[in-house]
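Next up, sample data.

:::
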Amino acid sequence: MNTIEQLLAKLQAGEAGIEETIRELHEIWKTGSFGVEDLGFAQLDTARQPRTGFPEVIFGDGKSAEQIIEIFRRLMRHADRVLATRISEDKAALVLEAIPQVAYHPKARALTWFQKPIFHIAGGYIAVVSAGTSDEAVAEEAALTAECMGNHVERVYDVGVAGIHRLFRQLDKIRRANVIVVVAGMEGALASVVGGLVAKPVIAVPTSVGYGAHFQGLAPLLSMLNSCAPGVTVVNIDNGFGAGYAAGLINRNMTSHGQE
């Protein structure tokens, strides 16, 4: 139980008066401790879901399995869903042992927990399009993130420009989407090609898949940033989570205004 819940419980039980409770709540607000839970190694933003519509997400790189477990457990008390990204199989095994309710998604390298099944709260769908099979991990991170936000996702994988006829076979499905996430490594040309064929927002994700002069994703990043196709927005290298989250917000806002 967090501090505010404790204060309200004391008020309800008659152990504190209204004026005292108001003073305590004002102090919490003034000191900035509202919605923050101090774990020592982490300051959890427990009020993020009511503020933004989605709870704080755990970034697994650089965190120990023990830290991930503790953060996960605390977030489960405050939110109806928890997502952790960039989780290795070794760390995932330890988390699953400690919290059996959690599910691991190896392709996306992510952990999820839902208080109850997640239904599609937004209409229409998001298309996640990847250039090659090597880009699938980043594409799955984007797709899973959007799904955790309550969006329907259609996956269109391995349709890169080296065999562009593969893309044309899936073009109707891509065009019907409300938002399109395009994930590509190498030279990153797929984002521009898709951007020139659709009338929907395109979120481009460069990946670190490629050879030497690819510079671990810098080449497709610059290619996507310099796209001459209008409507293409670019996130950071390998940032499937950021693309999926942005697409989820766009889709939710489009459909909530009856634009699907």
In short: The first strand starts at residue 36 and ends at 38. The domain at 126-254 is CATH 3.40.50.1970 (Rossmann fold). Residues 90 and 204 are 30 Å apart (CA to CA). The mean pLDDT is 89.
